Amino acid sequence: MPGGIVVVTSLALEARIARGRGVTVICSQGSHLAAALESAVEGGASGIISFGISGGLGPGLAAGQCIAAAAVRTGQEIFPTDRAWTRSLLERLPGAVHADIVGMDAPVADPLEKRRLHAQTGAAAVDTESHIAARIAAAHQVPFAACRAIIDAADKRLPAAALIGLRPDGTADVVAVLRSVVQHPSQLPALVRTALDARIARAALRDHRRRLGAGLGFPHFSSAVPDIPCIGSLRTELAVP
Question: Considering the entire predicted model, what is its pTM?
Fold first, then answer.
């Protein structure tokens, strides 16, 4: 029997939404994500998909807009997504933008940096997981796709509290967020805006997951694959990235 679909996320809310029949969800970041994904792929996988929220780089992209990646860029590397799988995503998600995503090792918060990245790469969105997933999928010759919902538009700055309020397991560090706001109260309006945008992105992700169905749109998904537990903590939802 072929393996299931491996879903790559970094937030507990993304992982919770992604769960389903025949799906292994990995919720982690950086080197921990890479190690967990390597282990999952070695155990057998039909495909890998990066699923979650991303920062907007392209002009006109608002919170909740879906990106079905044509390719993932990082440095000098370009990893094309699986054509059949990406076509399936576009068919099931009306209005999705077919564009490149750029992967970075840290969130991009500054609008000037976002514009620079867009001009340099042409990518419509940025996240911190897709390049890791794409690289491992290419190394193991496993079909790869990416489906991301925009959370912060290209002209919006992410406040510091949003960037530090994430634990390694993908859950919210509320104490760290409150401490940051107390130290720098001027960021509170931006944090509230980010929380509202996160709510929009979360609703979009839930709609995308429902539309993609079992196997997250993978064209050769077998319904005979059993349910697979998630890898990573799913204790609480996160209101900010």
Answer: 0.86
